[in-house]
Amino acid sequence: MKEIVIVLLDRFADWEAAFLAPALRGGVMPGHPGYCEVKYMTPDGGPATSLGGLRMTPDYAADRLPAQCAGVVLAGGMDWDKPEAEKIAGIVEEARRRGLPVGAICNAVSFLAAHGFLNEVRHTGNTVEMLQKWGGERYTGAARYEERQAVRDGGMVTANGTGYLEFSREYLLALGADTPEAIGAWYEFSKHGIYKQ
């Protein structure tokens, strides 16, 4: 079965992939089939602990992507500027080479900027200034920055740290995980709940 690999570092943001993973595994709507299995990766294959104290044991180390990988998601957090994150650049390169959708949210977007992955695609992030600070000379894509919660451009999906639902929607659409109508209905329910205020 296809797998989406979610990359986590220590001090990952619990909530930033919390809506996406169950929608992928269990389907976006009741009665709809799941799209794929969800697997987790850390740089060295060791456990990662979230900002909320959730301790997660991964399925993979960041040596290479599994053959059955259908996409990669970089969950945000506080350690994307640490040396251990550098192993993930090779994973992103492999995913792009294989034509797999890559999603990144919050500081993981800044990591992509620091490695030149955003220069040719429309994207967003926490702020363009943050991407310029992290990216330095390697980030030349400021003209393609959009002030939106999430942006999908081909196989690249980016979001700021508060855009986790929009990020999930755009990544589901990038995958074709269900019909646009079903994904839209999932988003509306997740965003507004049973009762709209």
Protein model, in words:
This protein is an alpha/beta fold and 197 residues long. It has a single domain (3-192), classed as Class I glutamine amidotransferase (GATase) domain (Rossmann fold), CATH 3.40.50. Helices cover 30% and strands 18% of the residues. It contains 6 helices and 9 strands. The strands form 2 sheets. The protein has a 7-stranded mixed sheet with strand order 5-2-1-6-7-9-8, with helices on both faces. Strands 3-4 form a two-stranded antiparallel ribbon. Helix 1 links the parallel strand 1 (3-7) and strand 2. Helix 3 (107-114) packs across helix 4 (128-135) and helix 5 runs antiparallel to helix 6 (180-192). The model has no long low-confidence stretch (mean pLDDT 97).
Question: If helices are DSSP runs of H or I spanning 4 or more residues, what is the number of helices?
Answer: 6
Oligomer: single chain
Query: Distance N terminus to C terminus?
Result: 40 Å
CATH topology: Rossmann fold
Q: What sort of overall outline do the alpha carbons produce when their principal axes are compared?
A: globular
User: Structural class of the helix and strand makeup?
Assistant: alpha/beta
Strand order, biggest sheet? 5-2-1-6-7-9-8
User: Mean of the pLDDT scores?
Assistant: 97
The tally of beta strands, per DSSP, is: 9
Strand content: 15-25%
Query: What Rg, in angstroms, do the CA atoms define?
Result: 16 Å
SSE sequence, one letter per element: EHEEEEEHEHHEEHH
- Low-pLDDT stretches: none
Return the CATH class. Alpha Beta
Instruction: Summarize the amount of helix as a percent range.
Output: 25-40%
What is the H level of CATH, i.e. the homologous superfamily? Class I glutamine amidotransferase (GATase) domain
Let me know the largest β-sheet. Answer: 7 strands, mixed
Based on the structure given, which CATH architecture is correct?
3-Layer(aba) Sandwich
Total of domains: 1
